[in-house]
């Protein structure tokens, strides 16, 4: 899709398991919700629309967005056709394990430059652990140098070989993803929705680490060790799980020059996160 023809995009999930998690309830005005951080998705869509100078529709309010999500679920249950192809972004397919058609759904929200909002639902594998944010609580130490599995295989994470310049298309999530797909292609990683345990770390024109092709990320730095994520000044996407992890103090933003391309260490563990998977661990190849 060309840079002149794109929609704003946000992808979350609906899962009954989320109803049992107090942290998800707290960000939903203290009301239990089966949607992962839906209020954060809603706010990010509005912020992105303003950045692109697009109209912000009333249907981007939290209650209206939830109604659209429920309508998309009903459409999926009755076998209605998906009005928007999913050829470029189906993060949930990167889980291992069986797909649960009845309970876990990936929810994909598109906002057009005219202010039209469309929502589609597709099957997603269930969470492999009770709390999808649990991997963020692990840090390597002398007594625990390697992480538990958390029910998922480690991602094999490659450092890109050329920079991806920061732009409005890295600072906002859109259907224009050529730059991300180009980074994946340099390591023969197929574009989503093709499943892969490989991922690529991007860096900008100043050699600052920014994100991966479909996830935010954090590295272990400092003493005592902390998960450190690239600052938004690098041009990375301000992801919804990133926002939550920062608010909980589980990750911190990097200082200037703290996360540089040349400082990435072969074999080190990386924490990755997005609005469908929650948190997941990988290792630099």
Automatic annotation (TrEMBL):
Protein's UniProt name: Aminodeoxychorismate lyase
Single GO MF descriptor: catalytic activity
Originating species: Ganoderma sinense ZZ0214-1
One Pfam family matching this protein: Aminotran_4
């Amino acid at each position: 899709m060309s840079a002149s023809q794109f929609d704003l995009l946000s992808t979350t999930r609906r899962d009954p398991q989320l109803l049992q998690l107090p942290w998800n309830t707290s960000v939903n005005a203290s009301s239990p919700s089966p949607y992962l951080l839906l209020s954060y998705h809603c706010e990010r869509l509005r912020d992105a629309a303003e950045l692109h100078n697009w109209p912000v529709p009333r249907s981007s309010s939290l209650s209206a967005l939830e109604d659209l999500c429920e309508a998309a679920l009903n459409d999926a249950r009755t076998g209605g056709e998906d009005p928007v192809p999913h050829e470029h972004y189906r993060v949930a397919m990167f889980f291992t394990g069986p797909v649960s058609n009845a309970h876990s759904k990936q929810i994909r929200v598109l906002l057009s430059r005219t202010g039209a909002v469309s929502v589609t639902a597709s099957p997603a594998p269930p969470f492999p652990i009770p709390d999808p944010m649990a991997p963020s609580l692990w840090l390597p130490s002398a007594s625990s140098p390697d992480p538990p599995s958390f029910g998922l295989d480690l991602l094999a994470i490659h450092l890109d070989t050329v920079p991806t310049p920061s732009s409005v298309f890295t600072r906002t999530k859109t259907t224009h993803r050529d730059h991300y797909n180009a980074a994946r292609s340099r390591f023969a990683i197929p574009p989503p929705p093709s499943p892969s345990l490989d991922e690529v770390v991007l860096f900008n024109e100043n050699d600052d680490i920014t994100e991966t092709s479909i996830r935010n990320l954090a590295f272990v730095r400092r003493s005592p060790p902390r998960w450190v994520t690239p600052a938004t000044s690098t041009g990375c996407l301000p992801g919804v799980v990133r926002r939550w992890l920062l608010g909980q103090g589980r990750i911190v933003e990097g200082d200037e020059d703290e996360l540089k391309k040349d400082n990435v260490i072969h074999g080190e563990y990386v924490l990755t996160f997005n609005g469908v998977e929650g948190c997941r661990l990988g290792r630099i190849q």
